């Protein structure tokens, strides 16, 4: 009787250890397709695609719940990259979600006019605006994605979207358009 209990206990311990090792070794953090789709999206977290951020939109695309053409910040290049990844035909950008703009923008707060209402801080999806109640606010340039979600809630209209000037690291050559003659 004691031998049987020890044998079953030993087997249970051995299987438990084997399952523990297997769960660590073969652990899957998430859907790799969602990760690949999310890597293509621009990470602006703007919500123009009708999803609260890029990751939920990537999950919806992976689950065939959303089309690949709903991200204006990603533009046509993003749609083409998603189509190539998923083996689908590229679609024109859906105008219901907004229009693509090749120029990138960034929020700038006129600190002299800012009344410190914190409405822009609450609206910013990436926490790029810092400040305190009844004190001026400012934008952390490296964090701002240019989503424009901070502009509508501002009661004193002190936030402007300014085009980001290209630097040596962000400059991109665009081939000239050829006339079809």
Automatic annotation (TrEMBL):
Q: Per the annotation, how and in what number is the cofactor bound? A: Binds 3 [4Fe-4S] clusters.
| UniProt-listed Enzyme Commission number(s) | 7.-.-.-
Keyword presence, Cell inner membrane = yes
Annotated [4Fe-4S] cluster 1 binding lies at: 46, 49, 54, 71
Protein's UniProt keywords contain Membrane: yes
Which Pfam families would you find in this protein's record?
Fer4_21 (PF14697), FeS (PF04060)
Where, by residue number, does [4Fe-4S] cluster 2 bind? 114, 117, 120, 154
Major subcellular location class = membrane
* Boundaries of every 4Fe-4S domain copy: 29-88
The enzyme's main class, written as a single word, is: translocase
Q: How does it assemble?
A: The complex is composed of six subunits: RnfA, RnfB, RnfC, RnfD, RnfE and RnfG.
The cross-references to NCBIfam families, in alphabetical order and at most eight, read: PRK05113.1 (NF003475), rnfB (TIGR01944)
Q: What is this protein called?
A: Ion-translocating oxidoreductase complex subunit B
Species whose genome carries this gene: Oceanococcus atlanticus
Higher taxonomy = Bacteria, Pseudomonadati, Pseudomonadota, Gammaproteobacteria, Chromatiales
Q: Which gene encodes it?
A: rnfB
